[in-house]
Amino acid sequence: MIPLSRRAYVAALDLGTPSSRCIIFDRTGSPIGVAQREHRQIRPQPGWVEHDPIEILARVYEVVASALAVAGISSHELAAVGITNQRETTIVWDRATGRPVCNAIVWQDTRTAGICRELAREGGQDRLRAKTGLPLATYFSGPKLQWILENVPRARARAEAGEILFGTVDTWCIWNLTGGPQGGMHVTDVTNASRTLLFDLETLQWDEELLGLMRVPRAMLPDVRSSSEIYGIAVGTLAGVPIAGDLGDQQAALFGHAGFREGDVKNTYGTGCFALLNTGTTPVRSLLWHRPGRRQGFG
Q1: b/e string for 137-147 if b means 16 or more Cβ within 10 A?
Q2: Which residues contact 194 (CB under 8 A, 6 or more apart)?
Q3: Taking Cα atoms as reference points, which of 87, 39, 33, 85 lies closest to residue 59?
Q4: Cβ proximity of 91 and 169 under 8 Å
Q5: What are the residues whose beta carbons fall under 8 Å from the beta carbon of 224, sequence distance 6 or more?
Q6: Can you name the residues that pair with 51 across neighbouring β-strands?
Q7: d(CA 66, CA 178)
Q8: 227-266 pLDDT, tens per residue?
Q9: Widest CA span of the chain, in angstroms?
């Protein structure tokens, strides 16, 4: 086994909406191996978008093996693996078996419109903005998790008993890569947690009031970590390699294009179009604007 200090390569896993990709970089930052595999977009009815978490995991293993083969190296030469992921997509799975209780509900899915309207009945769409920085919308993970707990048979009872876990795609993959039911690390980072409507931007913690509002048991949530640290050591295909980075895809795009200074902005064109602005170390509240004859927006 090559000591970590002498390993010459790192791997990035990009777990996107249409596909998963692995890129191997050398010490100069040059890519030396790339592989990509698509997964199915499941649309059971209008407004619903789902992914199969087991299929995503299978694609992860495939792209890792393929990228290593293209690079002509073994996993033992990797110093670390970092993960970036489609944000907000919601997965719930069995702690003991690793089996999802249902398909992942993708960020594009709008089935939670009724839940969001009910949550906005008192206080309006901006009811949670002071804590979360976000408007009430179908986009975010919290209402999706509430929908699963209310609609999948026995999900709420199992959640309250500590039998099932929640996570976004990063959490799902880190848990599986580090052992799954045999000691997998149940973690996420601040960028992904901040897109759930369950996370307080001031304390950087899950918020008990928000959890109570959506009736989400705290025990099923991952630990929130920084975006750059060693979360655990991989087993299986990547045995012995530290999982050492976790960042939501749009924040990763801003960081990857060196948007380190306050005021730097990055526009990303992918499945959606996203603009992210570096506001510095203090949360900056967006202002609600409205002009007669125009749609209400947030800017």
Answers
A1: bbbbbbbbbbb
A2: 132, 133, 201
A3: 39
A4: yes
A5: 187, 188, 189, 190, 193, 199, 204, 205, 206
A6: 104
A7: 20
A8: 999 999 999 889 999 999 998 877 777 777 777 788 878 8
A9: 67
Q: Which of 154, 148, 157 is nearest to 105 (CA)?
A: 148
Strand order in the sheet with 232-233: 31-38, 19-25, 9-15, 78-85, 242-248, 232-233
Please choose, from the candidates 108, 81, 15, the residue with its C-alpha nearest in 3D space to the C-alpha of residue 53: 15
Place of tokens 């594009």: 108
Letter for the amino acid at 167? Answer: G
Contact (CB, 8 A) for 135 and 206: no
191, 86 contact by CB (below 8 A): no
Query: d(Cα 209, Cα 173) in Å, to the nearest integer?
Result: 28
Q: Which residues of the chain have pLDDT under 70?
A: 1, 3-5, 286-299
| Amino acid of residue 241 | V
pLDDT in tens, 130-175: 899 899 999 999 999 999 999 999 999 999 999 999 999 999 999 9
d(CA 194, CA 74): 35
Owner of token pair 């919601």: 90
Q: In the prediction, which pLDDT does 5 show?
A: 66
Q: Determine the pLDDT at residue 295.
A: 39
| Under 8 Å between Cβ of 185 and 95 | no
For the chain, the straight-line distance linking the first and the last C-alpha, in angstroms and rounded, comes to 52
In this predicted structure, what is the pLDDT of residue 248? 83
